[in-house]
Design a protein that fits this description.
Blueprint (H helix, E strand, L loop, with lengths): L1 E2 L3 E9 L2 E10 L4 E4 L5 E9 L3 E6 L4 E5 L15 E6 L9 E8 L2 E4 L4 H11 L11 E8 L3 E9 L2 E11 L1 E2 L4 E4 L5 H15 L3 E8 L6 E4 L5 H13 L2 E9 L3 E7 L10
Parallel strand pairs: 13-16, 15-17, 16-18
Antiparallel strand pairs: 1-4, 2-3, 4-19, 5-6, 5-8, 6-7, 8-9, 9-10, 11-12, 12-13, 14-15, 18-19
Helix pairs in contact: 2-3
């Protein structure tokens, strides 16, 4: 866990013939941050293929094939020519040394690594940075529950019911400043909603947390157009007592931080 002082950082995305400031990252005192292990290398995305591979031309001219840690459709984030940031591993056992971590789309940084949200949430839980989820002494990961499933986190305390917490990465934006999930049919995610609902019916607490890994969204919605079953399932789960949270992130080439909650547009009573 990293605890950082308040600071403002700016950085520029360099494209041929143009230098443009993309964003400024202000870190709050004692906020948990997930730091990248080493400085990211910037380049341009050439293509993403077979889901887990991406060809990138780095700013120094090197052409690399990187791991793309994202099984989803990546709508709007896999367009050739997008600026991309990659990390490098020194592990000699890895087939691909580089991993695509960020892309820039429509002037915003977007985290495409779907493994990061659980790490971010683990940091945030340890730092009590998610007010709705404080007060639990034990944070267990990958606990079996439901039908052949493992919950992302089981939060436990002696004076309250257990809290079953599922975490989903959200990086789809199609219009305005609305983040949406999922970006393709997500049958497994729908199964998780049903299992969370079962926990509530058993008298325990269950939370569905969406981590929005992009810097240009201030609201969240289930994407009924791409997966109507999931949108219906999320509404049904919430009606049954599953709590739905959506948190935005602050992102820079140095770190990603879970920052603040944003409203769920599909929530009962929302406009």
């Amino acid at each position: 866990m990293s605890k950082v002082n308040t600071s403002t950082r700016s950085y520029c995305a360099c494209v041929p013939g143009k230098r443009q400031e993309v964003t400024k990252l202000r870190l709050t005192p004692y906020m948990a941050a997930m730091n990248f292990p080493s400085p990211l290398d910037r380049g341009v995305l050439v293509s993403r293929y077979k889901r887990f591979f991406a060809d990138v031309v780095l700013d120094d001219g090197r052409e690399i094939t990187a791991h793309c840690p994202n099984p989803g459709a990546m709508l709007g984030l896999n367009t050739p020519g997008l600026p991309a940031w990659v990390s490098r591993s020194e592990d000699p056992k890895r087939k691909l040394a580089h991993t695509v971590e960020l892309v820039e789309a429509d002037g915003a940084l977007v985290g495409i690594n779907t493994m990061h949200p659980n790490r971010l949430v683990a940091e945030a839980l340890a730092a009590d940075a998610i007010p709705e989820l404080t007060g639990y002494a034990k944070h267990r990961r990958e606990v079996r529950y439901g039908t052949n499933s493992r919950v992302d986190f089981l939060l436990q305390a002696p004076d309250r019911a257990p809290c079953w917490l599922e975490v989903k990465n959200c990086h789809l934006r199609r219009t305005g400043t609305l983040a949406e999930f999922p970006d393709c049919v997500a049958a497994r995610s729908l199964k998780h909603l049903r299992e969370l609902t079962a926990m509530v019916e058993a008298g325990e607490r269950a939370v569905m947390l969406f981590v929005i890994q992009r810097t240009d969204c201030d609201a969240f919605s289930a994407c009924a157009e791409l997966d109507p079953a999931y949108a219906i399932g999320l509404a049904q789960a919430a009606a049954a007592g599953v709590e739905v949270l959506a948190y935005a992130c602050e992102i820079s080439p140095e770190r990603v931080v879970i920052s603040h909650t944003v409203p769920w547009v599909g929530a009962a009573g929302s406009s």
